[in-house]
Amino acid sequence: MPATRKDFIIDLLERSIATYVETFLGLLIASGLGTPADRMALLEKAAIAAIPAALAVAKAGLAKFKGDPNSASIADPPD
Q1: Counting runs of H as helices and runs of E as strands, what totals does the chain give?
Q2: In angstroms, how far is CA 9 from the centroid of its own chain?
Q3: Around 1, how many Cα atoms within 13 Å sit in the side-chain half-sphere?
Q4: What is the spatial distance between Cα 18 and Cα 21, in angstroms, rounded to a whole number?
Q5: 57: Cβ–Cβ under 8 A, 6 or more apart, which residues?
Q6: What dihedral angle (degrees, nearest 10) is formed by the CA atoms of 34, 52, 71, 7?
Q7: pLDDT of residue 1
Q8: How far is residue 15's CA from residue 63's CA, in Å, rounded to a whole number?
Q9: With contact defined as beta carbons under 8 Å apart, do 23 and 48 qualify?
Q10: What is the pTM of this model?
Q11: How far apart are CA 15 and CA 77, in angstroms?
Q12: 50-76 pLDDT per residue, tens
């Protein structure tokens, strides 16, 4: 079954949301290891986690020019 624009959007959302959640949780875990003075505020963590998620969206946009144009992956589709 051929992929559609909807498939691309779903793929993009999944990847960017997963990247955001993974980064946010990583920051929560890592900051819990420091002293209270070293710990970032929750909103700071949320803002910082948005950077890799935005990069994931940008990468997915570039992926439309390589490989399957209906996938957010840069990898070529399997034969």
Answers
A1: 2, 0
A2: 13
A3: 2
A4: 5
A5: 12, 16
A6: 80
A7: 45
A8: 13
A9: yes
A10: 0.67
A11: 17
A12: 898 888 888 888 877 776 777 777 776
Rounded alpha-carbon distances, angstroms, from residue 39 to 1, 14, 18, 44: 49, 29, 23, 10
Both structure tokens of 44: 């700071």
Note whether 3 and 36 are within 8 A (CB).
Answer: no
Torsion angle of the four alpha carbons 45, 49, 50, 52, in this order, in degrees rounded to the nearest 10: 160
User: Which residues, including other chains, have CB under 8 Å from residue 39's CB and lie 6 or more apart?
Assistant: 31, 32
The pLDDT tens digits for 6-50 are 887 888 888 888 888 888 888 878 777 666 665 667 778 788 888
Rounded Cα gap, residues 65 and 33, in angstroms: 41
Query: Which tokens in the block code for residue 7?
Result: 């498939």
Tokens 């439309």 label which residue?
A: 64
Give the C-alpha separation, 12 to 14, whole Å: 5
